[in-house]
Give the backbone structure.
Amino acid sequence: MSLHDVMLEELRSLYSAENQIVKALPKLIKHAKNEELKNGFSQHLAQTEEHVERLKKIFEQLDQKPTGKDCKGMEGILEEGKEVLNEDESGDSYDVGLIGAASRVEHYEIAGYTWAITVATALGMKEAVTLLEETLGEEEETRDELEDLLNQFLERSVKRTAA
Ligand SMILES: [Fe+2]
C-alpha cells in the first residue's frame, strides 16, 4: 500500500465517522437540557454536514469513492455515548455527561484530521489540505465551546454547593 492509499483509507474512515455523527447529533439535540448546549449541537450538525461535503469534494478531486470503510472507533465512542443518554440525571449534571461524550467525539476527529493534514501536506495535496484545515478549525472551535460550557456548568454547581 502506498502512502497515498493509506491516506485514502484514513479519509474514508473520517467520512464514515462524519456520517455517523450526522446520524447521532439529532439525539443529542433532543436530549440536551440547556438551551445553549442544544443550540451548540444544532450548529455542529450543520457544520458536520459540511464536513461530509468537504470530504466528498476531496474524493471527487482524486477521482475516488469516499465509501467502503466503517470507522470502528467512532462506532465505539458513539455506543458509549448512548449510555449517557439513558442516564436519568437531571439538568446540568445530565448535560455535563453529554459534554463528556461530545468531547470524546471531537478529540477523536481532531486526531484524524491532524494526521490527514500532515500526510496530505507531505503528498503535496494542497486543495485537500485547505479543505481539511477548514474542518479541523471547526472541530477545534467546537471542542473549545464544549469546554467553556462545561466550565460554566461547573461554576454554577460550585456556587450552589457554597450557598
Ligand atoms: Fe466533523
Residues 12 and 143 are 23 Å apart (CA to CA). The radius of gyration is 17 Å.
